[in-house]
Each structure stands twice: as C-alpha cells, then as structure tokens.
Design a protein that fits this description.
Blueprint lengths: L2 H8 L1 E5 L5 E5 L10 E5 L5 E5 L6 H7 L26 H23 L6 H20 L5
Antiparallel strand pairs: 1-2, 2-3, 3-4
Helix pairs in contact: 3-4
Bound molecules: zinc ion.
Zinc ion binds next to loops.
C-alpha cells in the first residue's frame, strides 16, 4: 500500500479535492466535524498534511492515525533533496473551508435575528469560525 493510500484509509470523511492528488478529510488531531484537513500527494511521492482549522502539527496528525513520521516520505527518498512545498493546496479547497464557516455564521445571525440566544457552544463555534478564516488567510500569505 502506498503512503497516500495508508493515510487516506485511516482518515474519516475523505473526499476528492479540486486538484489531482488532493483530498479533504476530517482532522484526527482535533474534534473536526467539517473536513478541514487538506491532504496532497506530491509528484515525488511525499504526502502533505495541512489542518486549516487548528493548524495541527503533521506529526500530531500522524500520531493520531497511529503512523510513524516516515509515513509521509517516499520509501526511497534521498532525504537531503526534500524541499518544503509552498502553498500546494488549491484555492478552491480553501474557499470551501471558508464557505462552510460562512454558512455557520449566517445560521447564527438568523438565530439572533429571530430573537433567539446563542448557546455557550455556539459562541465557541463562532470563535472557531473566526480562527478558521484567519488560518485560511494566513495560509494564502495574506496579512491579517
Ligand atoms: Zn486539526
């Protein structure tokens, strides 16, 4: 089984991303209900993991999947030739994460407009929505 297959097989809610060899899934390193973990396989066989919600560390994500750190590197990698990939995830996947947050914000606003009150959990979720949007911006290199 290739690295990417082993990782995808352990993730929940995996769906194809908008670009070839990219996926979105629920992040195993935090309580994730909307898929916020972007997964990509590079042409040289590395697997890239990026949590758009909490910015969870890839080592932590692998630990939650019960996989060693070597699971993201190709088997015969010449380790000194590995360059960090810069922003490999397509904008459309990031937009999708942001759109999910916007839907939540609209629902919260409708509740308030109808005279309802937000629960403590709703407040926490609103803060998380803000953090996700900030994370998406900073991933794209936009200063906040
Ligand atoms: Zn995460």
């Amino acid at each position: 089984m290739s690295n990417i297959d082993a990782i995808l097989a352990r993730l929940d809610n995996v769906r194809q991303g908008t670009k070839r060899n990219t996926w979105m899934a629920c992040c195993p390193a935090h309580d994730d209900t909307h898929p916020s973990l972007a997964v990509a396989e590079t042409d040289d066989g590395r697997v890239l993991l990026h949590c758009f919600s909490h910015g969870c560390d890839w080592r932590e994500i692998l630990a939650c999947l019960d996989l060693p750190e070597s699971a993201v590197f190709p088997e015969k990698a010449s380790q000194h030739h590995i360059r960090p990939e810069r922003r490999p995830f397509p904008a459309a996947d990031i937009l999708r994460v942001m759109a999910n947050e916007a839907i939540f914000l609209c629902a919260a606003s409708r509740t308030i407009q109808n005279g309802g009150a937000l629960t403590a959990d709703d407040h926490k979720r609103l803060i998380l929505a803000g953090e996700r949007l900030q994370a998406a911006l900073s991933y794209c290199g936009v200063a906040t």
